[in-house]
Design a protein that fits this description.
Length: 377
């Protein structure tokens, strides 16, 4: 699950906030953005809608937030694993129809973009980076046809003008201890898989707290990683999520645990649970099981069980579950989901854990886990 509140916090915590017209100004009121009146004028996800492609691969500026999220678990020629993440966020600072003040500076904008790139290597080192840009002058953006999503030279784009796939990811990361470059191609996806109710994904029982959400699963990945002066040819699998929304989660919801797994029997699995501040699991928690032929089986809250088994301390007061028991009786799944490396924490403007995990048991597999809400206050 991708939630827009992370985008807001990333913006406000990392750099001076952008005003509605694009000017930099300090002290943007986060409460005003996430509270009632601030949402006026934006579209709300309030029920199933028809999806249209390629249009829906592109931006939806009538909604406050959306994201393009890609993860891949790959191996080099020696069988050593690498985890790769690329995420591009769009955050609207004013609804459509707000005064554009025509004739003002070309830097004025109602859109802010944020991108994350992360790499986990076989030695256990996890490196995450972020960038921010205004939605003007070509610094960042998304086009539907031909598809391209970029922020400066971090770019995910279709290699053919009239098709979504193959996709190519290119990112050069210099602001880390061990600079690296990733160049990967993704093809033969399964999808689009409409998550939730025909692509309408509820996040709470409150009306309008939802998103529109679809995925491409089991993308075949190949390419190379340049790290420490060495070039590693890699192959594996990728997962691409698309989501857009406006409304916030309920106040009593404290975080989520989101799993995207490629099972060795050829199926794909997504489950997420939303945790409440009283320790319970929200009824909006859900999942989707994707068969080898692309058919789907929705999973309700009562169809699966997630139990934390072991936690990792991040050194700053946060405790993150890095081993879980996952049970889905109707899918024949009962095993442990364990992080390849405990420390896959994205230490960015807002901290969240995003990294490779593998499932054992009668139906093994590997994929990604995202966790929020376990850091120290």
């Amino acid at each position: 699950m991708r939630d827009w509140i992370a985008v807001l916090l990333l913006t406000c915590a990392s750099l001076p906030a952008f005003g509605a017209a694009g000017e930099l100004r300090p002290g943007l009121d986060l409460g005003a953005l996430i509270g009632g009146e601030a949402a006026a004028g934006f579209a709300v996800a309030d029920g199933p809608r028809p999806f249209r492609f390629p249009e829906d691969h592109g931006p939806h500026p009538d909604y406050r937030t959306e994201w393009w999220y890609l993860v891949a678990h790959v191996e080099d020629e020696r069988g050593r694993p690498y985890g790769i993440q690329f995420t591009l966020f769009r955050q609207a600072l004013a609804p459509p129809g707000a005064d554009a003040d025509e004739g003002a500076s070309r830097w004025r904008t109602r859109q802010v973009w944020m991108a994350h790139v992360a790499l986990s290597g076989p030695d256990g080192e996890h490196q995450a980076s972020e960038r921010f840009a205004r939605g003007e002058l070509g610094l960042a953006g998304v086009t539907a046809a031909p598809f391209a999503a970029w922020l400066e030279d971090w770019r995910l784009a279709a290699s053919e003008e009239d098709e979504m796939f193959p996709l190519e990811l290119e990112a050069r990361v210099e602001d880390v201890a061990r600079p690296y470059r990733v160049k990967l191609s993704f093809d033969q996806p399964r999808g689009p898989i409409l998550q939730g109710d025909r692509g309408f994904s509820r996040k709470s029982e409150s009306e309008g707290n939802a998103s529109y959400y679809y995925s491409f699963t089991r993308m075949q990945a190949h390419g190379h990683i340049l790290l420490d002066g060495e070039r590693y040819q890699v192959t594996g699998l990728g997962w691409l999520d698309r989501e857009w929304s406006t409304s916030v989660l309920d106040a009593g919801q404290t975080g989520w645990d989101w799993f995207a797994l490629h099972l060795d029997d050829g199926r794909d699995l997504k489950v997420f649970q939303i945790r409440r501040d009283d320790g319970s699991i929200d009824a909006a928690s859900a999942g989707m099981l994707v068969a080898t032929d692309g058919s789907t089986t929705p999973l309700a809250r009562d169809d699966f069980e997630l139990q934390p088994l072991r936690s990792w301390e991040d050194g700053d007061g946060g405790s993150w579950p890095v081993a879980w028991r996952l049970r889905i009786p109707k899918a024949g799944i009962d095993g442990r989901v364990v992080a390849r490396h405990d420390d896959q924490l994205n230490r960015l403007a807002v901290r969240y854990w995003e990294g490779q995990v593998c499932l054992d048991g009668p139906v093994p597999g590997c994929g990604f886990l995202e966790m929020t809400g376990y850091g120290s206050e």
